[in-house]
Amino acid sequence: MPFDFIEFSHYSINYLDLFNEFNAQRILSDRNLQIQYLKRWMKQLENCDNVIRNQLNTKGSILKLRLLLQSEPEIFQLPIEHRSNKILLHFRVSIANKIISMAKPESIFIPIDEFIRKNTAINWTPVDTNVDSYSKSEEPIVMVPFLFNQYHYLVIDGNHRLTFKIKNNINNIHAVIFSEQTVIEHSLFSSGFDKFYYIMLNEINHMANATYYKKANAFQLVQKSYLKDENFKF
Fold it and tell me: According to the lineage, what is the superkingdom (predicted)?
């Protein structure tokens, strides 16, 4: 049972349904290899699931987590709807902002149309509350690669600022985009489960694209999996 870091509660996943959902797609050109590859991912997620369940198996351990997170209050949660599962993906925004303040990575400006056009490739979360207090905010929004369904990127910080700018038609959104490798190496996740689930989503997309567009060899693709040696290769 993975963990909801906003509600501080466990939830369940039907891993057989999750396996069947992904296996219905053409990820690798070799069907048998694809089945074994996806089974390994399900096993990895279940292992991470067991770890966090054992770590947070009492009210006391969950209370200790609550107290610990008071020093790191910014967590972004994205609910992801699968065919018969809803899985929660959590990012440690406080850590991401520390990296930005220390490393000062290059930022870019993205046209507002990229956020509001039909079938946008950027997954962001509009905010329903009043956002006028963000009118003078100059901090960039923070985005990470997110390869799921139509999306290429996910906004993990700055959704309030972004909502204000879009409501007021302010063009050119200031943004910092972390590379996929940076997200993984700095482990910007609330748990091991979140980390491996994120890697799996992106990796499956990388492999499916390589299979479809480049006719890539299935065995060679599997050798690039993060599961092989926990190194990012895409």
Answer: Bacteria
Report the amino acid identity of residue 20.
N
Q: What is the rounded CA–CA span in Å between residue 226 and residue 234? A: 9
What is the pLDDT, as a whole number, of residue 1? Answer: 82
List all residues 6 or more positions away from 214 whose beta carbon is below 8 Å from its beta carbon: none
C-alpha to C-alpha distance for 62 and 54, rounded to whole angstroms: 11
pLDDT digits over 220-233, tens only?
999 999 999 999 99
CA 70, CA 18: separation in Å to the nearest integer? Answer: 33
Is the distance from CB of 88 to CB of 11 less than 8 angstroms?
Answer: yes
User: In DSSP terms, which residues pair with 86 in a beta bridge?
Assistant: 81
Numbered ranges of CATH 3.90.1530.10 in the chain = 106-177
Mean pLDDT, rounded, of the chain: 96
Question: How confident is the model over 17-37, as pLDDT tens digits?
Answer: 999 999 999 999 999 999 999
pLDDT computed for residue 22 by the predictor: 98
CATH of 106-177, one of 1.10.3720.10, 3.90.1530.10, 3.90.78.10, 3.30.565.10: 3.90.1530.10
Give the sign of the dihedral formed by CA 174, CA 117, CA 199, CA 208.
negative
Q: How many other C-beta atoms lie within 10 A of the C-beta of residue 155? A: 22
